[in-house]
């Protein structure tokens, strides 16, 4: 392994990340056609409903019992970035906000001082498969912003910049590539300060294509994940599919693809470099703050749950939309 690569490692569930990122998971579920409730039109026997994370027949129910997904649950002290490339996600939260997004859309939610939300995967097609492909990334917040007001923003796929090179397509979910800048993140995000060089890039490479990554500052953590394809070379090091690599800050890295189309995700950013205390959906700086978060959630439920069901989904015929806590509505075809 050359000196520009810190290490190469197999991908688990979730993937390993570096500060300022806390968590990254890749979901690929080949759901069957949907039933009347927008759940799978298939038997659910033999599944650990409420905790089904083992792939059976090509898909999982996660914490859903009727519809796949994650019924309402709390977060505090960090941000979630959810990229849905195939299928749809139905969002509802304790602030009264809601949305349906997919087919390349991204939801960026600053949990801050506390929010409950639900993320369900409605199987809209009744006469065709419902493939779901998504990333969920957790981005930490520094101490000064841990208890900021919650914030929810949609990055519609029509607005996300795409950079094209010979045989390469790169989507800028966050950060910039040359003169191309991604959609502005929430205002209190670690990504909102350009000096932190936060980047979230989706990269697709044709067989034999190559890409030179722009050089970062000397303190930037950068990880590259190969989740689709066969093999790429990073300068003189080989990385096979379902592996990640932590790259040396400031190094010039050329990615050379092999014989199959490759899908990669790149995460980078300046480390927050503060203590991290985690307990499930809470991320603070100390264990005392975790205990306080748990007490406050027991007392307030972070605003309660204004929706009829824990795993609420929107009407089947509803298009892509975002309803914000202030009542503002965005709709996309």
From TrEMBL:
<dbReference type="InterPro" id="IPR014710">
    <property type="entry name" value="RmlC-like_jellyroll"/>
</dbReference>
<dbReference type="Pfam" id="PF05726">
    <property type="entry name" value="Pirin_C"/>
</dbReference>
<dbReference type="InterPro" id="IPR003829">
    <property type="entry name" value="Pirin_N_dom"/>
</dbReference>
<comment type="similarity">
    <text>Belongs to the pirin family.</text>
</comment>
<dbReference type="InterPro" id="IPR008778">
    <property type="entry name" value="Pirin_C_dom"/>
</dbReference>
<feature type="domain" description="Pirin N-terminal">
    <location>
        <begin position="61"/>
        <end position="139"/>
    </location>
</feature>
<dbReference type="Pfam" id="PF02678">
    <property type="entry name" value="Pirin"/>
</dbReference>
<dbReference type="InterPro" id="IPR011051">
    <property type="entry name" value="RmlC_Cupin_sf"/>
</dbReference>
<dbReference type="InterPro" id="IPR012093">
    <property type="entry name" value="Pirin"/>
</dbReference>
<protein>
    <submittedName>
        <fullName>Pirin family protein</fullName>
    </submittedName>
</protein>
<feature type="domain" description="Pirin C-terminal">
    <location>
        <begin position="201"/>
        <end position="303"/>
    </location>
</feature>
């Amino acid at each position: 392994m050359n000196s520009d690569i810190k290490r190469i490692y197999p991908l688990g569930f979730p993937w390993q990340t570096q500060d300022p990122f806390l968590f990254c998971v890749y979901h690929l579920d080949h759901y069957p056609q949907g039933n009347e409730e927008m759940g799978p039109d298939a038997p659910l026997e033999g599944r650990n409903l409420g905790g089904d994370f083992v792939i059976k027949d090509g898909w999982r129910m996660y914490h859903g019992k009727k519809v796949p997904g994650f019924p309402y649950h709390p977060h505090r002290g960090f941000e979630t970035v959810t990229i849905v490339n195939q299928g749809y996600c139905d969002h509802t939260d304790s602030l009264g906000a809601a949305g349906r997004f997919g087919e390349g859309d991204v939801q960026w939610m600053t949990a801050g001082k506390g929010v409950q939300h639900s993320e369900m995967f409605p199987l809209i097609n009744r006469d065709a498969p419902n493939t779901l492909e998504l990333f969920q990334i957790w981005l930490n917040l520094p101490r000064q912003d841990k208890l900021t007001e919650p914030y929810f923003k949609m990055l519609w796929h029509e607005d996300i910049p795409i950079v094209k090179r010979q045989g390469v397509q790169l989507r800028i979910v966050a950060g910039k590539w040359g003169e191309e800048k991604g959609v502005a993140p929430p205002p209190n995000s670690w990504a909102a300060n350009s000096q932190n060089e936060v980047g979230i890039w989706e990269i697709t490479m044709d067989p034999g294509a190559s890409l030179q990554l722009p050089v970062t500052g000397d303190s930037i953590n950068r990880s590259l994940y190969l989740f689709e394809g066969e093999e790429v070379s990073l300068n003189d090091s080989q990385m096979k599919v379902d592996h990640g690599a932590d790259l040396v800050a400031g190094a010039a890295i050329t990615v050379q693809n092999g014989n199959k189309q490759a899908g990669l995700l790149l995460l980078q950013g300046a480390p927050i470099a503060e203590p991290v205390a985690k307990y499930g959906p809470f991320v603070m700086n100390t264990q005392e703050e975790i205990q306080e978060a748990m007490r406050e959630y027991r007392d307030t439920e972070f605003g309660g749950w204004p929706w009829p069901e824990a795993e609420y989904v929107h009407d089947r015929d509803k298009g892509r939309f975002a309803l914000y806590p202030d009542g503002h509505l965005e709709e996309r075809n």
